[in-house]
Amino acid sequence: MRFLIKEGKLIPKLDSSDDETTFSISNLPEIPQLSTNPFFEYNPELQKMLAGKQLLIDELPFTIDEIQAHYENGYLVYRKGIQKQENRPHGSSGVTEKHTNLPRICVRCGTSDESWFGEFPCARCGERDIYCPKCLMMGRVSECTPLVCWVGPESDFPVVDRPLEWAGSLSEGQQVASQRVLDAVKTTSELLVWAVAGAGKTEVLFAGINEALTSGKRVCLATPRTDVVLELTPRLKKAFPQTKIASLYGGSEERHEFTQLTIATTHQLLRFYKAFDVMIVDEVDAFPYSIDETLQYAVQQSRKLDSSLIYLTATPSKQWQKECRLGKRKYVTIPARYHRHPLPVPKLEWSGNWEKMLTKGKLPANIIKWIETRQASRRQALLFAPKIASMEKILPILRKMDPLIESVHAEDPDRKEKVMKLRNKEIPILLSTTILERGVTFPNIDVAVIGSEDRIFTESALVQIAGRAGRSADFPTGEVVFFHYGKTEAMLSARKQIEMMNKEGIKKGLIDV
Amino acid sequence: MLCHEEIEPEISWRSFLGKDQAPKICTECKDSFAPITGEKCEICGRPFDFLEEEYRIGNICMDCKRWEENEEWSGSLDKNRSLYRYTDFTKEVIARFKFRGDYVFADIFTEDIKTVLQAFQYDYIVPIPLSDERLYERGFNQSEALIKAAGYTPTHLLTRIHSEKQSKKSRDERIQIEQVFKMAEGVEIECKTILLFDDIYTTGSTLRHAAKVLKQNGASKVMSLTLAR
Ligand SMILES: [Zn+2]
Ligand SMILES: [Zn+2]
Ligand SMILES: [Zn+2]
Ligand SMILES: [Zn+2]
């Protein structure tokens, strides 16, 4: 769309047929912001939908006239969807020249790498527009697209005395972390919670969330994976039954709810803008968050400038671990599991050139032996392979040993079913790509990795994989083996990390020896 | 093989195409488009392989036979050809391009469109127009984008008749003179061959409406090409 500037105001023009000089929003040197008219009767529905958000006009079920009235009375602002990072005034018009080589940034998702952008002849503004394909699924942001944000008064949340209704108890390790989270909420500061797989990290958040809700703060629990949103939502609804909770992921319906507590995929955060007083990011190490700057950007721009930021992870990156050691990052560890048993430490076993053997339809003898041992003792196992291609070669070999053995990968339509079957003990051994490295838990299994030298098995992936074993209090032990064709740094670091956590757990008296 | 990595659904399409502005499609994905081959209906290009025997009448399909038996529509559209079958995969790619508005997706089809256009003899290639509301909503006309991406110049011979005006008329009136398109002014098409272009052939009704207007205005032959059907 195009805008007209009249009496210091932007006026949207839906058709470009007029004689008046109109502009695409990205070409304006600055966008006039208007002072708030206290007598204006704003629409509370629009307020609910837009407070703490950045939405496209197309996403708002209100007429352009009503939206514009809120702008003219200082209740909302138009921001550039695509911003030229340096705005050099051009000529006497003060309007910047289009298609110079100024670097651009998509203001919604933060993409600035030019190779991502696309270009098209835009019927809305009549110019050739740059648009952002990266966040396209949330509606196209192009150079003439304004992002609409609320700047009027925010509505308060209903006060609840004791939002937390949870009767469970915390382990010693959890208690320490819980107190630190509470402090981070009270002092609006940053904290990393480094909790081993099976430590029970969700419960550690309850006191902090309770504190935030009681003091009228808006809280977001974000995670890169939809699975986690779906898993956390009922747990939090149960713990905070009086609080309105929005659960947002690709395809969810609750997009426009105004709630005090939001559980969302990090991707959904792109619709928020300076919304949250407390931002909690779960599984910071999980793909694709750790490799995707967009999602970092989403976390930063969706929280208020003055807000708490709490990260949860079982395996922080090398960089973060270093920052923790050097005292540059505030953190707390939960080095032991809830059941007070140490984490199973992975064994590293050389298995030779397993890929070459696979081409001959064979598996290394020690891997075969490992499987036979599971069969003899009737223990279930998860077996990880680096690629779908190698998995397809391994499966027939295993099926000769037991026809009930199954394999699963990311795009397997029966993925959920197979996981369920393993849980019901209908499958003795499940062969998997890295998709089952986290989240999914089975009470009593052994774990092995074939080809653990592959670069897909990063330190954090291997720690997560090892974390699948020994999860339940009834079966706190389990065997973890990395079968490899050459030890990698990731393998050694993963083992070291696990040993270090066990040591710390023992030292702090959180593990029974 | 970027397309087979596990990624959040929102970003997987771009990864599938690679990061370059002009999307490069990997052979595996390219093979996922099901090209229409083998015997087909002489008029609408429907592949007989996927049709029950009783819906085939000689060299044409049952639908086309019905159109041709109708005095009003007989001979309006001379021939349609479509590149791919409208499979779930094609549907998804077209949706990303047309509804989500990822314009650069048009480039995916460039090669195939170029190849098939060589088989057509025509004077003008004409995209099916969108209504003003649709055009604003999408920001571009998908058919026009496809023609341009393939390096051809579209001619705008048709405009859409405003649909709101239509709904005000009585039902009888509408059935009688249901007109979707009218001729744009200024181009002479007497004795010309026109190639219509649309993204999808569904019932063939849109294309026949367009073809009829063109024939009424003197076109000697009207054919059409769609991406999918
Ligand atoms: Zn973007
Ligand atoms: Zn535009
Ligand atoms: Zn592909
Ligand atoms: Zn036919």
Automatic annotation (TrEMBL), chain A:
Q: Which Gene3D superfamilies match?
A: P-loop containing nucleotide triphosphate hydrolases (3.40.50.300)
Specify the Helicase ATP-binding domain's residue ranges.
Answer: 182-334
Q: Which UniProt keywords apply?
A: ATP-binding, DNA-binding, Helicase, Hydrolase, Nucleotide-binding
Q: Which Pfam families match?
A: Helicase_C, ResIII
Q: Which SMART domains match?
A: DEXDc, HELICc
Cite the InterPro entries for this sequence.
Helicase/UvrB_N, Helicase_ATP-bd, Helicase_C-like, P-loop_NTPase
Highest taxon in the source lineage: Bacteria
Give me the segments passing through the membrane. none
Instruction: List the molecular function annotations (GO) for this entry.
Output: 3'-5' DNA helicase activity; ATP binding; DNA binding; hydrolase activity
| Any GO BP annotation | double-strand break repair
Keyword Nucleus recorded? no
Task: Establish whether keyword Transferase is in the entry.
Answer: no
Domain spans labelled Helicase C-terminal: 366-513
What the entry lists under PANTHER family is as follows:
COMF OPERON PROTEIN 1 (PTHR30580:SF1), PRIMOSOMAL PROTEIN N (PTHR30580)
The protein depicted here goes by the name DEAD/DEAH box helicase
**Originating species:** Mesobacillus subterraneus
Q: Taxonomic lineage per UniProt? A: Bacteria, Bacillati, Bacillota, Bacilli, Bacillales
